[in-house]
Design goal:
Layout: H1 2-15, H2 28-31, H3 35-43, E1 69-73, H4 115-122, H5 168-197, E2 199-203, H6 207-213, H7 220-223, H8 226-246, E3 251-255, H9 264-269, H10 279-302, E4 307-311, H11 313-322, H12 324-327, E5 331-335, E6 361-363, H13 371-383, E7 390-391, H14 395-399
Parallel strand pairs: 1-2, 2-3, 3-4, 5-6
Antiparallel strand pairs: 4-7
């Protein structure tokens, strides 16, 4: 019986890779696909509503605080990029999205909204569309684009065992392409003005631990102690931020890493007795965030007229975990959706695996928080409503003109 269940679940995972490949022709050269493979996948796929851009809830007709919002990252902020890739890292079927505005899966790795959805509304902007999910017309990108891809890491190969993803350097290249389109459409001055007044949000790095360092890929743990590995990753992020700066990016929000030592996957794998976090993993995350915060502080001094802030997601998340009752959560260790101990052994792949009420859970699946947690973290990024986790300022301070 158990073997039959596992076989069925594996079959579901495999089938989820090929339901929709409408936009693969846009990325054929980028990912090295052959036309025959694209045709084969397209011919065996049926159109899915999950690839459309979800409607944004209405808000008062006031001018946005910034012209546009650009998102770079991994599954924490992927809004549908991986719907168009051949990968196991997909969230294009229920129960993902069941509590979203449309009650349909959109590619977000959550039961509802992700942090950048809440922040877009704060900025007075619509939900940011996926780069691979929009038409490519400049008019559709003027208010921002989301390049984030589940499984992506700072290191190019992180997460590659899951299938295709768009790494950090590739996302920076996509942003470069977008900027060049703006220049062709509105001229250098117009493009520079739009970009310099917009916000770029970066949330990436966790897959370099989940799918690379902690798995000891290429014997990396013998080559790098955690501190050296953290510095190596930070140096890459620093270089990419400087690349963005050369394209007139001046407002950057860099997110730290969440406490994955508390995630259901590692509670299950490390056989946590009573839901205690795995401190050896959290210690590495703390170190990374420390290195990143220092790097961001120094880079902000180096790059003239820049506003770069670092938000320590570890601090904000641990405040939620430690004070869960105050926030309205009564399930802190078990995921809402999954199988095995803490529901962290197998990924969320069917509605039957999900709990009935995600709002009282901290974790939605193996690694990702629920919509309720994302809302709290977004409020902290915006103005530190629940806990101060951004340095040297909050996002609101970055974008709202100071009263004289």
């Amino acid at each position: 019986m158990a073997l039959n269940l596992v076989a069925c679940l594996i079959s579901l995972v495999i089938s989820s890779v090929f339901p929709q490949a409408r936009a693969l022709h846009h990325t054929q050269g980028f990912f090295g696909f052959t036309p025959n493979l694209v045709d084969f996948i397209s011919s065996t796929s049926s159109p899915s509503s999950s690839t459309s851009i979800p409607p944004t809830p209405s808000f008062p007709e006031t001018p946005p605080l910034v012209p546009a919002f650009f998102v770079i990252g991994d599954s924490s902020v992927d809004c549908g990029t991986n719907n168009f890739l051949v990968t196991l890292a997909r969230a294009d079927r229920l129960p993902y999205g069941r509590d979203f505005d449309t009650h349909r899966p959109t590619g977000r790795f959550c039961n509802g909204r992700i942090p950048v959805d809440y922040l877009a509304l704060r900025l007075g902007l619509p939900f940011v569309p996926s780069y691979l999910g929009q038409s490519g017309r400049v008019e559709d990108m003027l208010q921002g684009v989301n390049y984030a891809s589940a499984g992506a890491g700072i290191i190019f190969s992180s997460g590659s065992e899951l299938g295709q993803h768009v790494s950090l350097s590739q996302q920076i290249q996509q942003f470069t392409d977008t900027y060049q389109q703006f220049i062709l459409s509105m001229g250098e001055h117009g493009a520079a003005d739009l970009i310099s007044n917009s916000v770029v949000y970066i949330s990436i790095g966790i897959n370099d631990y989940i799918h690379f360092y902690l798995r000891n890929v290429s014997n990396v743990q013998n080559l790098f102690l955690p501190w050296s590995f953290n510095q190596f990753l930070a140096s890459i992020v620093r270089l990419e931020i400087k690349n963005l700066y050369t394209m007139n990016v001046r407002k950057v929000v860099v997110m730290g890493l969440a406490p994955i030592g508390c995630a259901p996957h590692y509670l299950s794998e490390y056989r946590s007795e009573n839901g205690e976090c795995i401190e050896v993993i959290n210690d590495i995350v703390r170190e990374f965030n420390f290195v990143m915060r220092y790097m961001i502080e120094q880079l902000g001094k180096e790059l003239r007229d820049s506003n770069i802030i670092f938000c320590d997601v570890f601090e904000g998340s641990m405040d939620i975990i430690k004070n869960h009752r105050r926030y309205g959560f009564n399930v802190t260790a078990d995921a809402c959706c999954g199988l095995g101990k803490y529901r962290g052994w197998l990924m969320c792949i069917s509605p039957e695996m999900a709990c009935s009420n995600a709002s009282n859970h901290i974790w939605w699946d193996q690694f990702h928080p629920t919509d309720a947690v994302n809302a709290i973290l977004a409020e902290n990024v915006w103005n530190g409503l629940h806990s101060n986790m951004c340095y040297p300022m909050n996002m609101e301070d970055m974008v709202v003109p100071k009263q004289k």
